[in-house]
Amino acid sequence: MKILVTNDDGIDSAGIAALVNSLKEIADVIIVAPSEEQSAVGHGITMKYPLRVFNYRKNGTFFGYAVEGTPADCVKMGIRNIMQESPDLVISGINHGSNTAINIIYSGTVSAAREAAIMDVPAIAISVTSHEATDFRYAAKVAKMLALKVKEFGLTRGTLLNVNVPNFPEEEIAGILLTKQSKAKWDDIYEKRTDPYGRDYYWLTGNLIDIKDESDTDQTAIKNKFVSVTPIHFDLTDYDTFEKMKSWNIENLINEKVN
Amino acid sequence: MKILVTNDDGIDSAGIAALVNSLKEIADVIIVAPSEEQSAVGHGITMKYPLRVFNYRKNGTFFGYAVEGTPADCVKMGIRNIMQESPDLVISGINHGSNTAINIIYSGTVSAAREAAIMDVPAIAISVTSHEATDFRYAAKVAKMLALKVKEFGLTRGTLLNVNVPNFPEEEIAGILLTKQSKAKWDDIYEKRTDPYGRDYYWLTGNLIDIKDESDTDQTAIKNKFVSVTPIHFDLTDYDTFEKMKSWNIENLINEKVN
């Protein structure tokens, strides 16, 4: 099995190192990851600027390819240019901080896996639920187990698995659950400050507001110390609204007399 | 009606000016847009750096607020900080170049409208299908007509309309169609070059590969000179795969003996 590994915390992060160590037991691992941290870049790709790729060394030996770009750039570049063939699986992570609910939209980690799914390669995004996480061993083991499951069962074309692992030792983990994306959203707050030159600037902060009666979502799972596994895809069509909007008769708008 | 207008081409683009002119006939318009072009940034938000906001003047008069950030930043900042209330509608555009099929994922224009939908504000993203477009009058009229439709019928919470207008004069437009997101994807090509210092770099290029037998998609509509209107949402759960994956019994993984 050939696995392409990437992330959004950067090629020198502890999370990707733990992931690679675990996956090497079951696969050939190729690492193509951002040269610098790329959190909250969403599904950005680099088109206005050229991309550069460097060999990244760790303790004197070649570790992987560092790309001066986004996580999605790394997957495109890794498959099209570096490997020049499709791997059996792409795994993105292990991210510091949870990627549940609406955070999926903003996440560079998830977007990398989604880019793989777009390229018809099965993919997994994996995160540990704390920004202060230092022990990635259990999450790395979960990644390995799920890689073997994907090998066994296959994954629908265009689908990726978004995995969140509570930041607790293995013996405190309650279990592993198949979940849906929570509807929880952020209550955004912009903190206003003034720079030494008297000019205002703003920092984005806020809180993720939980939804009370959700039972089978990613948010509920991690709150109860379960590993959450959510299948996600990139068909954004809202089919329910598509049906409802037939009553709008928008095809008649072409004849409406509006200046 | 209060409409917040943003885009990804930047506050000084011709597309946003045409949109604002048209919408002013039916609404109070507040403009909060990126100070610089932000194409293909996806749903990135600014968290590592502070955000700055400037008053942007055009021909000596105040035009709108310029944000040194992404389109999604503009919507958050516009609603939370500048307006401090929800507008009736957010419109993002008019973008140079089509946002159909998989491009929806990469698009800053669509992500701005999606950010509004996340904040429970009805939203429209609108694009003209050519990067060389110079006449935005018909697209601006379509935006106005659809704004009135949204006012009349309302829009499901969390749904936005992604609109693509063929780059032709009004009299050559074939009609307006309700569509679904096409499955068409890019065949990515990285063009390798060498800089004056002997170092390699890569430019991303490629072609969108059409799907042969799609009938009711955004891609098919614009190819046939129809305006395309696609309802999209941000629930990324793949419900079909969710059902299929029940047979994986992942809850048993917790007991598997893997080192």
Reported for the largest beta sheet of chain A, the result is:
9 strands, mixed
Order of helices and strands of chain A: EHEEEHEHHEHEEEEHEH
Q: What is the subunit organization of this protein?
A: homodimer
Mean pLDDT of chain A: 93
Biggest interface, CB < 8 A: A-B, 87 and 88 residues
Keywords:
two-stranded antiparallel sheet, 29% strand, 259 residues, homodimer, alpha/beta
Structural features, described:
Two copies of one chain form a homodimer. Chain A contains seven helices and eleven strands. Chain A has 259 residues and is of the alpha/beta class. The first copy, chain A, has one domain: Survival protein SurE-like phosphatase/nucleotidase (Stationary-phase Survival Protein Sure Homolog, Chain: A, 3-Layer(aba) Sandwich). In chain A, the strands form two sheets. The first copy, chain A, has a nine-stranded mixed sheet with strand order 3-4-2-1-5-6-7-11-8. In chain A, strands 9-10 form a two-stranded antiparallel sheet. In chain A, helix 1 (14-23) links the parallel strand 1 (2-6) and strand 2. The longest helix of chain A has 17 residues, at 137-153. The first copy, chain A, starts with a strand and ends in a 15-residue tail after the last helix. Chains A and B meet through helix 2, helix 3, helix 4, helix 5 and strand 8 of A and helix 2, helix 3, helix 4, helix 5 and strand 8 of B.
Summary of the model, kept short:
The first copy, chain A, is of the alpha/beta class. Helices cover 26% and strands 29% of the residues of chain A.
